[in-house]
Amino acid sequence: MGAYNLIFKTADGGKSWQAWFDRTENPKFFNLYAIRPAAGGLYISGEGGLVLKLDVAGQHFKAVSPQYNGSLFGVADAGNAVLAYGLRGNVFRSDDGGAHWTKVNAGLQASVVGTTRTAQGAMVLADVGGRLAASTDGAQSFTRLTLKNPMPLTAIADIGEGRFALTGPRGVAVGEAVAAH
Q1: Of 3, 39, 88, 99, which residue is 20 to 30 A from 61 by alpha carbon distance?
Q2: pLDDT in single tens digits along all 181 residues of the chain
């Protein structure tokens, strides 16, 4: 999936592909940025506040977007909820499969570009400025974490013991995070 509603499906491990352009409620052909399973469903996030959820029976993606017009760069599984995140630190949470959304204050000012789950079960969000926020209550609330050596970020992955694999314009690094004071 990608630019201008580009989306394909494979059922044979990538040997053949079927176009799914006509199986999305995306009439403005917004760009599609991420696809992830979350809270028992399969979700796509995109530009213009677009969030789509797969209707398995109908074999198409239905719009379940929050009331937000900025780009949403990702979706994440928050246990019994789905999280959509994107521009200017905006984070939205749905407990009911996307029917209703609540804006969550993660304390991040810049675009949220990545998320990871720690071995202890905490969800960690990362913004492009290298700031982190963690939740241990299913993404209902967040506390700030501080990277010991901050850097601009494009993605994050937990590698255990308070350490994260980080990617950004400066390359790849391992960083340690501590609770912000």
Answers
A1: 88
A2: 999 999 999 999 999 999 999 999 999 999 999 999 999 999 999 999 999 999 999 999 999 999 999 999 999 999 999 999 999 999 999 999 999 999 999 999 999 999 999 999 999 999 999 999 999 999 999 999 999 988 999 999 999 988 999 999 999 999 999 887 6
Q: Which CATH architecture has domain 1-104?
A: Beta Barrel (2.40)
Between CA 167 and CA 159 the distance in angstroms is 13
Whether this model's pTM surpasses 0.85: yes
DSSP state of 89: G
Domain residue spans in the chain?
1-104, 113-181
